[in-house]
Amino acid sequence: MLEIGRKMVSGELPQAPVGALIGFKLIEVEPGYAVVELEANESHANPMGTLHGGILCDIADAAMGIAFASFAEEGESFTTIEMKINFLKPVWKTRLRASGKVVKRGKSIGYVECDIRNDQGDLIARASSTCMMLRGPKAAGR
Fold first, then answer.
1. Stretches in the chain below the pLDDT threshold 70
2. Backbone angles phi, psi at 38, to 5 degrees
3. How many domains does the chain have?
4. Which residue, 101, 12, 5, 18, is CA-closest to 59?
5. What are the CA-CA distances from residue 124 to residues 41, 54, 79, 108, 127 (Å)?
6. Which residues span the domain enclosing 95?
7. Which residues have CB under 8 Å from 139's CB, separation 6+?
8. How confident is the model at residue 142, as a pLDDT?
9. Residue 136 Cα distances to 59, 76, 139, angstroms
10. What's the pTM value of the predicted model, to 2 decimals?
């Protein structure tokens, strides 16, 4: 999976469909680490005019998932089994950078964290997730 992520970063492979829908892009991936960026604008707003929290969840989930998936080998896949996020600062229009890092990796279960920052480096949100590696029939078709 790491090689697929690197090919997405280089443009050899297309970005994930959800990234195209929301507007985020994978810009960096290394073993246990991934960075996703999003240019937040009016199209990402909630009814009050600030960035919808679900968008922050999406980019955090993408960064954490890709970081965890970077350890997947041939025939393996993964799923997120739990996610938590704290919204710390409102956002309107800015570039957001979600940096996901694997904190603990076990044989099947891993714990991942993500900081989302704006152009000025302000912490916008912090997320965490628990991911599970899938193997054999459970990974088939995923």
1. 142
2. -145, 130
3. 1
4. 18
5. 15, 13, 25, 30, 10
6. 2-138
7. 75, 76, 77
8. 67
9. 28, 7, 6
10. 0.92
